[in-house]
Specification:
Largest interface: A-B, 19 and 23 residues
Oligomer: heterotrimer
Order of helices and strands of chain B: EEEHEHH
Shape of chain C: globular
Order of helices and strands of chain C: EHEEEHEHEEHEHEHEHEHEHHH
Number of helices of chain C: 11
Distance between the termini of chain C: 58 Å
Largest sheet of chain C: 7 strands, mixed
Chains: A alpha/beta (291), B alpha+beta (97), C alpha/beta (365)
Number of domains of chain C: 2
CATH superfamily of the largest domain in chain C: HUPs
Largest sheet of chain B: 4 strands, mixed
Shape of chain B: globular
CATH topology of chain B: Ribosomal Protein S5, domain 2
CATH architecture of the largest domain in chain C: 3-Layer(aba) Sandwich
CATH architecture of chain B: 2-Layer Sandwich
Strand order of the largest sheet of chain C: 1-2-3-4-5-7-6
Helix content of chain B: 25-40%
Strand content of chain B: 15-25%
Radius of gyration of chain B: 12 Å
Number of domains of chain B: 1
CATH topology of the largest domain in chain C: Rossmann fold
């Protein structure tokens, strides 16, 4: 079963307190940020902090992501060395504009994996789309590497590139669709943007509802409070669970009886429906029924 | 290696620690203060000494002000303070692991 | 990206009139004033509003305030850290701050350690737990000479006059060993290097004298913080007390000093007050948990017109290019330094004819 990635909690890589306690909150993934959340003068110390934290047992059971600085900065390559050597699960590349950005990243990762004895290919990638060019190239980017597990939209830089500002979501309309379609075409996960106002629960839930119904696998979060809310929004209703269970039962029966076609209530159910049913049950297993 | 310039790393926020290093001509001069000195003093001292040994630091005044940090945080702040204090631009990954 | 109400930090120069005015208002609303020697401030803003500030005057933090709504958060800690970082950029790593005793605990949490406290009034702190201790240890290792009667003088020597030399000679005769501390702060007309060199040259004929740099623990009055003390007199009292407490508690014991020598001060109120404070803080038994030090006030050497010789008189003469008159009140060993000073300040070495008399000289340190 594909891993659930509903919630990705962002942590500033420079905060010792947050790095020491974040594992308590149990998001699906934790992202250690070495880029925008870290000031220039703390780049070196954040890198080392994350390097050491990644190796601590408290992060062994949870999917870890590191957002490195772009490779054309003095920091990017060092960040990459630190993260890969420390055993991070996923490298998030900010400002991915072209497939070549991913290829360049991959070349460096291969070099580092070989150099430190980490299994070549074990480090996964996530591309962050933060510009108009990135949105346009989303499909090519999503297909550019076997290591890519997902593609994310990042709003802050994107809306500036689009010469507008963050608002009710109108400004992200096309970008969201493009990134989502690219992800689906490439068979990888799609992640939505950060919701910045941590005190606006209603606004957050509205946005989560929208992107869930669009089909996003998950969302980036900047506050632990948002995790519960998000997981609950992604939890299925009892109706959905009941239907999903019936789908799975029908599928299993169909397999046993060796029939070519599986049906439920007279309707044919094929692979996508069965897969979706599995996802629903996974989400129920993780967070129960939506309340 | 010798500490050649004054440097600091970390903060005094809860769960963090501040490490200040400066040159010393009398070898290693280590001072450790902690909110939890009684319970964890020995452990903190061990991590501090291990890191200094890993970098082969022979001369320096090392002042540690701990606010209840985990071992991995202590190690991190020590590593950064030493790197800044010895002007090491290149990271020797073996020393850190 | 993190749209929460996180404070933004900035560094500003006090020369920026607009910002300075804003800071003064902010300090005022926190019951604080502003000291003249603060060159830079670290400020914190939230939604454009000023919520914290910390001033930097060389190696001393002053004028520190946090908006009442933000107290109890880590904002104070952060602003002090930014100020420390700024000082480090300027090359200063060893920092001091003066605060009222109520705030000592807060500043302890920011990495500052108490050095000396004047009860209920002020505490001087430094940003290391072992600053004064290591200094005294080194002082002892480098300069301690065991002897029955060890004395000390603290002087600026700006420049070194016959008056200074006389004081040292008197003290040297009265003790088995004498330590002369030269104030290190470079605020004087003559640089520290020149001043200590003049002292060195001026005591060559004495066999029981060592001169050494005063260090940061012999505090210059000029940089002493006063921003949270209401009146000038209180500032002076606090300055004297703190300075003398440190001397008696830390510096004197490390060298076995039991006697301190100082010239009498007939004219300057501030210096006279300091001398009186010396008797109180150094000699009285139970004011400080440290051995008492005997204070000797030696009458100042006078010139041929019976005026006490003073360094300020020499400076005044130099500024008026009256080198030949200055020659009368400084040792020969000081002359080269006066020549150099004149040359460096582009004053013509040929003097105008000697007119008037010496009545126009002002006295001082």
């Amino acid at each position: 079963m594909k891993k659930l990635r509903r919630s990705m909690l962002f942590l500033p890589g420079s905060s010792a307190a947050m790095l020491s306690t974040a594992f308590i909150y149990k998001p699906d993934s934790i992202m250690f940020d070495l880029e925008d959340a870290v000031s220039l003068r703390e780049k070196d110390s954040a890198r080392i902090l994350v390097f050491n934290a990644l190796q601590h047992p408290m992060y062994k059971g949870i999917e870890t992501v590191v957002r490195i600085n772009p490779l054309n900065t003095p920091f990017g390559l060092k960040d990459l060395e630190a993260a890969v050597r420390a055993g991070v699960d996923v490298i998030r590349l900010p400002k991915t504009d072209t497939p070549e950005d991913i290829h360049q990243l991959e070349r460096e990762i291969v070099r580092i994996e070989e150099s430190c004895g980490r299994k070549v290919g074990s480090t996964q990638l996530m591309a962050a789309i933060e510009s108009a060019v990135g949105v346009i190239n989303a499909v090519a980017i999503a297909r550019s590497s076997d290591r890519l597990m997902g593609i994310a939209l990042a709003a802050f830089d994107y809306v500036m590139d689009m010469q507008t500002e963050r608002g009710d979501g109108t400004e992200l309309f096309y970008a969201r669709c493009a990134v989502l379609h690219a992800a689906r075409a490439a068979g990888i996960d799609a992640f939505d943007v950060v919701y910045g106002d941590v005190n606006d629960e209603e606004g957050f839930l509205k946005e989560v509802d929208l992107i869930r119904r669009m089909g996003f696998n998950g969302k980036s979060l900047i506050n632990p409070r948002q995790i519960e809310l998000l997981h609950n929004a992604y939890a299925p209703t009892q109706e959905e669970v009941d239907y999903a269970e019936r789908v799975i039962t029908a599928a299993e029966e169909g397999e046993r009886s060796g029939l070519g076609v599986i049906s439920l209530n007279g309707k044919m159910i094929d692979a996508p429906i069965i897969n979706h049913a599995r996802v629903v049950l996974e989400r129920k297993k993780a967070s129960g029924i939506r309340h | 290696m010798k500490i050649v310039q004054a440097a600091l790393a970390g903060t005094l926020e809860s769960s963090d620690l501040m490490v200040k290093v400066s040159p010393s001509d009398v070898g290693l001069d280590i001072v450790i203060n902690s909110e939890v000195m009684k319970q964890f003093g020995e452990q903190i001292t061990q991590v501090v000494n291990e890191t200094l040994t890993a970098f082969n630091v022979t001369h320096g005044q090392i002042i540690v002000d701990d606010k209840g940090a985990l071992d991995c945080v202590i190690r991190s702040r020590m590593q950064v303070a030493i790197m800044r204090g010895t002007c090491s631009d290149e990271i020797n990954w073996e020393k850190l692991q | 990206m993190y749209a929460e109400k996180t404070p933004e930090f900035d560094t500003v120069e006090t020369s920026n009139g607009v910002i300075k005015e804003e800071i003064i208002q902010f300090l005022h609303s926190n019951g604080l004033g502003i000291d003249d020697d603060v060159g830079q401030f670290v400020i914190a803003r939230a939604d454009k509003q000023l919520i914290a500030c910390a001033g930097l005057a060389g190696n001393t933090l002053k004028c520190i305030a946090v908006h009442i709504e933000w107290r109890g958060t880590s904002l104070g800690l952060q602003v002090i850290r930014e100020a420390e970082y700024l000082a480090n950029q300027n090359g200063d790593h060893h920092l001091f701050l003066l605060t009222c005793p109520d705030n000592v605990k807060s500043f302890r949490g920011c990495g500052f350690y108490p050095l000396a406290t004047l009860e209920n009034k002020a505490t001087l702190m430094e940003n290391t737990p072992v600053g004064i201790h290591r200094y005294c240890k080194k002082l002892r290792a480098d300069y301690f000479i065991p002897a029955a009667k060890i004395g000390a003088i603290v002087m600026n020597a700006n420049p070194f006059t016959l008056g200074h030399q006389f004081l040292i000679e008197q003290a040297s005769r009265a003790c088995n060993w004498l330590h002369v501390f030269v104030v290190e702060e470079n605020l004087s007309q003559f640089s520290f290097n020149d001043r200590i060199a003049m002292v060195r040259d001026g005591v060559k004929h004495l066999s029981n004298v060592t001169e050494h740099p005063g260090s940061r623990y012999i505090i210059s009055r000029g940089t002493f913080p006063g921003y949270f003390l209401k009146e000038k007199q209180v500032v002076n009292d606090v300055y004297s007390a703190i300075d003398l407490i440190i001397f008696r508690r830390y510096i004197a014991p490390s060298l076995g000093i039991t006697h301190r020598f100082v010239g009498t001060e007939p004219y300057c109120k501030v210096t006279a007050q300091y001398n009186r404070a010396m008797h109180h803080w150094l000699e009285e038994e139970f004011v400080i948990p440290a051995n008492a030090i005997t204070v000797h006030e030696i009458d100042r050497k006078t010139d041929e017109n019976n005026y006490p010789i003073s360094a300020s008189a020499v400076r005044s003469l130099l500024n008026k290019n009256k080198l030949s008159v200055a020659r009368n009140i400084v040792p020969e060993s000081t002359m080269p330094y006066l020549h150099n000073w004149l040359r460096a300040n582009h004053l013509d070495l040929s003097e105008p004819p000697l007119t008037g008399n010496l009545m126009s000289i002002s006295v001082g340190l």
